[in-house]
Structures are given as C-alpha cells and as structure tokens.
Amino acid sequence: MTDARGSARRDGEAPVRHAPGTPCWVSLMVHGPDRARTFYEALFGWEFRPGPQRPGPYARALLDGCEVAGIGLLSPDLHLPVAWTPYFASADVDRTAETVRSCGGTIGVGPLDAAEAGRMAIGSDPSGAVFGIRQASARRGRAVTGVPGAPAWNELTTFESERVAKFYATVFGHTAQPEVSADLDYMTLSVESRPVAGIHGVGNSLLRDRGPHWTTYFTVADLDHAVDHVLHLGGQVLKRPHDSAHGRVATVTDPEGARFALVQSPR
Length: 267
Fold this sequence. Notes:
Layout: E1 10-15, E2 23-30, H1 33-44, E3 47-50, E4 58-63, E5 66-73, E6 84-89, H2 93-102, E7 106-113, E8 119-124, E9 130-135, E10 142-144, E11 151-158, H3 161-172, E12 175-178, E13 185-191, E14 194-201, E15 213-219, H4 223-232, E16 236-244, E17 247-253, E18 259-264
Parallel strand pairs: 2-5, 6-9, 11-14, 15-18
Antiparallel strand pairs: 1-10, 2-6, 3-4, 4-5, 7-8, 8-9, 11-15, 12-13, 13-14, 16-17, 17-18
Pfam families: Glyoxalase_6 (PF18029)
Protein name: VOC family protein
Domain VOC: 22-136, 150-265
C-alpha cells in the first residue's frame, strides 16, 4: 500500500447511497464460512446476520449495527480465489457488465439479483484481477468508515498501472491521477474529486502464483496488537508492520489464506 486515503468518518445516522464507481462493499467467499466468521468476529468485533442466499449461503458482517462486509460459501463451480473482493457501485449493473466485456474484461458471475442487497455481478479486469459490481436496492444500509474494524481503502496490485487505470476509468467513470515519482508506478482513482482506490504497478516483482489482485485495508486501533491477534487466531503475517505516509500498515491472511491488510492511521 502506498497510502490509505480513505477518510476517517462515521455515517451511522443516515442511509447512504454510493456514487457510481465508489467502492461500496467488500465480500469474502470461503470454503469454511463458520471458521471465517469466528476469525473475523474475534479480530474486528463483527456481528453476523443472515444475508442474501444467492448465489450461495451468505452472512452480513455488522459493526455497531452498520453493515461493513459479507462472508459467504464459495461454491465449487465458481472458479474464484479465496480472497476479499471489493464491489464498485453502479446505477445499472447490466450496462456496467456489458462495458466490462467491451473493454476487455470478463464477467464470471451474474448479473443477478441478490434479494435485499440489490443486483450484482463479479468480473475481472483485463489483467485478471477480480472485482464486483453492485447496484443497491431501495433498502439502503448505514455506512461506517474510519473506525476500527471497518474497510479503509482498496488497492489493486498489477503489472503496470496506466493501462488498467484506463479500464476502470471507462467502466466506472473514475478519474485516474498518477503519482509524481520517478521510481513508483501508482495511480489514484477518484470519484467526484474524492480518492476512492489505488492501482500499484509492480512489474515483474508481482508474484506469479497470485497474479494481479485487489487488497482491502481494514482500520485497526493498534496495529501491533492486531497482528499478534491474527497469529493467535490462526492467520499468517505476509508483511510485518511498517510505516507509510498515512499510517502503519501490515499485510496478513486469515486461516484459509485470504489476504487483507491492516492500517493504523496516524494519531
């Protein structure tokens, strides 16, 4: 992660609708959802409620009554990695899915209706990184960001940033702004002048077994304590805590191998 630019705020008092192109949800599909829920409940203090059961059993994670994420059962016929997947808001999932295809991406799931969650699809960009598309239903939940246990930022690690940034700009209307650096290949994606996600090009240093992928960052109050807790709960540490311009960060996995990152914002 180059930085975590998600703003620290809580919108817990009123329903919200995300502008198209804004990351609006993160979802984890696993082989053992019970174990995953136990892990994240202990790590982040999430509570779980039943969610839409299509395309499979699913639970919504709540933080102080606000929906922050979802965990579901990964069906064997869905050839998807065990990974956290960010969903981008869309006013028309079907139209967005067609744009994904016309721009060289693929749609692997949907579009389909997911009960009260609205309409969704899962696709991949031309480099192979998996992402979701979500069209909210009339029932809008409350949003929470910038507090421990909530998603803070989503970042794509890929071979090079410029070409893939053009894909997301065309599909979701993002504005792409390159980082001014001679030795860093990084683009920030913005919606309505607000940074919403990042793209980090790492060239040949990208792990071939992993390939291009999105990483979700979750806010924690104490990074060192959270990393120790991950290990105690059966997860692994891939990158030890280190300082960045926007706080201390670490990359970890849950017991099933799903990667995610933790960020402690500067005080």
